[in-house]
Amino acid sequence: MRAISICELKVELQSLGVRTEGDKRGRKSGAGPAAGMVLLFDNGSQVNVPTMSWFVEDSPYSLHPIAEDRFILKYKEEEITTVAAPPIPRFYSLKTASGIPYWKIALLHGKDCLSTTVLQHCIHWNTKDVCKFCAIGLSLREGRTIARKRPEDLAEVAKHAVELDDVKHVTLTTGSTRDETRCVKILKDAASAIKEVADLAIHVQLEPLENTQLFHELKSAGVDTVGIHIESFDHDVLKVMAPCKAKLGFDRYIKAWESAVEIFGAGEVSTFIIAGLGESDRSIIEGSAKLASIGVYPFIVPLRPIPGTPLERFAPPEPARMLSIYSEVARLLRDYRISWKTSRAGCVRCMACSAMGDFEL
Ligand code: SF4
């Protein structure tokens, strides 16, 4: 019998993917780590696992249905454990009065996070500055979402997602806009409309604001936590993989993170750091130490090569590399007393796409 902890299992699944027999539920594309499905472990941990990328067919892990939403997870021929998948949300069967299916407005992420890209357009899409790992424009092109989610529709979906599916928190993201004031307005209108109808903690993801006073407006609209995603601390890597972010410069991120921590509190501000873009382990660990020292949570994820993106033929980092990075950064987080457990909403609370929280335990 293969002895493996949930931490190690989560890391292996994220790097190697899982083969499925027909059940490919999960979103194919969109912002963030798509092309996977969420699995729930009996200890309460959850993992978003690649199921659609090219390397998955070589994975030693496979899923075998034993009941509705329940599977045996095998490593080669050996049974490792049983896992569940979140049931298809009941709110997905509803439509707005104007006929838009709720699932085109927002999706369930993990077991209890309602997630949406409020503005599905990004000014960098189809330009040389686009983030090479991002799939924000693909779901729009394929008709699986709508370009702009109206605040009143988001509120309607959130209300039903709470009532029917016990959703607990919300992630609002957006493509880049030319004008940060407009971006903040879009996010705060969405947040305040949701807060009016549902008692949900709200996370927003946005670019590092130049006018940091705008963070106060988000807070007043009911936003609880903020993600400002640098993706990599290696500037040369960033110039190739996310040129639009490299152009903003590291100092702008630092200023935005520090201002956001003053307003939202330590541990309520986070950034995605993608491992596997060509950076060194050192850059991730030193970058995470800097983040933790100013109260920002380093949300480390292995690269998810999404079909249809320029990185679709890349491979995620090896599990051994991720184990070592997670272990070292978990020690740093303990030293700086930053923990995912205090986060009220968003990816840090969900933790399906990162094993960082599991290593803190
Ligand atoms: S960690 Fe974030 S992107 Fe991943 S499933 Fe959860 S809410 Fe979605």
TrEMBL record:
Its cofactor is [4Fe-4S] cluster. Keywords: 4Fe-4S, Iron, Iron-sulfur, Metal-binding, S-adenosyl-L-methionine. Residues 106-342 form the Radical SAM core domain. SMART domains: Elp3. This is Radical SAM protein. NCBIfam families: rSAM_MSMEG_0568, variant_rSAM. GO terms for molecular function: 4 iron, 4 sulfur cluster binding; 7,8-didemethyl-8-hydroxy-5-deazariboflavin synthase activity; metal ion binding. InterPro entries: Aldolase_TIM, Elp3/MiaA/NifB-like_rSAM, F420, rSAM, rSAM_MSMEG0568, rSAM_sf. PANTHER family: FO SYNTHASE (COFH), LIPOYL SYNTHASE 2.
